[in-house]
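S1.2 Input.
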Amino acid sequence: MNFEALVASDAVAALGWTLLHSLWQITLVSAGLLFALRLLKSSSANVRYSVCVVALVIAFVLPVITFIQISSGSRVDTVTDSIVAKATGREVARGILRNDWQVFDPAATEGSDDGSNFVGLRSYLDTQIPNLLPIAVGLWMIGVAFFAMRLGGGIWHLRLYKTRDIEQVDTHWEQTFSSLCEKLELTNKVRLLSSSLVRTPIAIGIIRPLVIIPAGLFLQIHPSELETIIAHELVHIRRYDTLVNIIQSLTETLLFYHPGIWWISRQVGREREFAADADVLRLFNDSHVTYARALANLEEIRLKTDKQLPRLATAANGGNLMQRIEKILKIETEAGRATSAWTATFALLLTSAVLLAVFSFSSSGIVNAQRKGENRKLAIGFVSIPPLDRTANAPKDSEATARLLIDALKRHKVPAIGFLQGGMVSDGEKFFPVRREIARMWIDAGFEVGLGGFKHLSLYYTPVDDYIENLEKNETVAKKLLGDMGFPPRYFSYPYLNTGKTAEDKAKVEAWLSNRGYTSVKYTMDNNEWMYSYAYDMARNDNDVNTMKEIRTAYLTYMSKMFDHYEAYTRDMFGRDIAQTMVLTPSRLVTDTADDFFAMASKRGYSFITVDEAQGDRAYKTKESFTGEAGISWFERWSMAQGKPLRVEPGVDFEVERIWEARNKSTK
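S1.3 Output.
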């Protein structure tokens, strides 16, 4: 079939007329939905959502029915004649067209009545519109192709979310998830996964549905808040909202040209979230404020990461956030109105606070706007003495690193503390001569030595008695090493900053430390410097000078962002700049960038102090009770204890993270 025949075909004509008729059909459906929503203003969210879905289906089905009717020849009018005339070239049809034109010609119809004018206009439109239909169909097909590509991109992203960088959640969350599934009476099997790729929780899939939670979110919001968010995603799955999402996406792709479709689709999404929120509130008793705070925290995370979700995914922070929060708090207000007259005022104040927290976060430019002469203080702690041996020339290379690092610390007058990892200098009975001398070099330079673990063990994965035995063994090594050369250890640094699986384990370790005269260091500026240091060491082993330079630049940029991150915490939490404590590794990267790093800190207004002076700040008396698998900063612990949202931490450069992940895979 050639192009001209295709353009003149009945299928193109039928499709063109279908598009034309859909303009008024969808407009009527939109108007009907608007009227229905006004009428059902006080009805439940489920009823309003159902009405919106029905309107969407009708708006999709009407053009389909119209196309079938036109294609089957049920529409017999002058349009059919004009199409036939163009296809067959009959002279009679040409004559009709000429006569119709003459009827519409103003000169030919002068003095005619209104009826003949109307007939002429209709006849003229019947003959001219078919000429425009192929153009309309062509433009429609281009639009469909564009939106189909967009939809395909969303499907591809969902595929990535399901297959890349996903992990099983821990046992606690598996049990919580199973309990929620039972409460919601979900019959199909649903899986809960964590991902480092997604930035907000999502529910995807119909036959084998998944709930995917950002890995960092387990630390960024309170567990009770996260539980309501997970329940929200399960509600979407139970209601088959993913299927409705597919219908929405197909409708938007095929009928993209009509504003009414986009409006109807927005109403579906809006009412869907209201309905899901109502189900969550029915599932949890007295959870209105907790749930509202969870949604606000999610929105803050979304705004800061600026992450857009694929169209087919359903997320808890979808829809109109502030309307949802207002509805949630309004429900609580109305429920308690009979017993507490001040609840409405409380809800209003909380809504205002949520608005401020979500939409008033500062950019890095504002964060760095400091008053000249402002005196900030920073203590530096190194997690291991001697430095880690990652190169082919260890421990000789560690000695060079230690000398360079000590020189840099002295130049910049940084009274750092290094925590002895005894297993690196001794087997518990006798010392390794070279590494012992590296550790003594630190002592000879006048730097304080703190207590780490004999082995670098996480309390979360180690029985508490074994953990304390590991500390006692290291204490013996430290006392032998120090002798009369320096102060006995006063501070202890938790390996991986992990303070245990349970409050009981944590309390037992803290009691042991207190009885021995140790104080645990509370690091306010945690960071992932160790990932950059590992990548740098790998480049050094390969003698890859260019990559080393790139990593140094990326590391300094990352650390500048981390300063922004924690400086924002101190103002939000304390309204002032507290004395900070930062943890680093004594790596070659930290050594090679020491001059630039300490100069950067000085430009930001920091002077360097001892950890003893830093922890004398009254801020360190703030209560916290965090236990869990992660090792996190004390700002995050304090925020969680106070029910405050966690800030989204700056991410590690992709290439650096890739190198670290490759290392993890090779060691499994």
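S1.4 Remarks. Residues 114-163 form the longest helix (50 residues).
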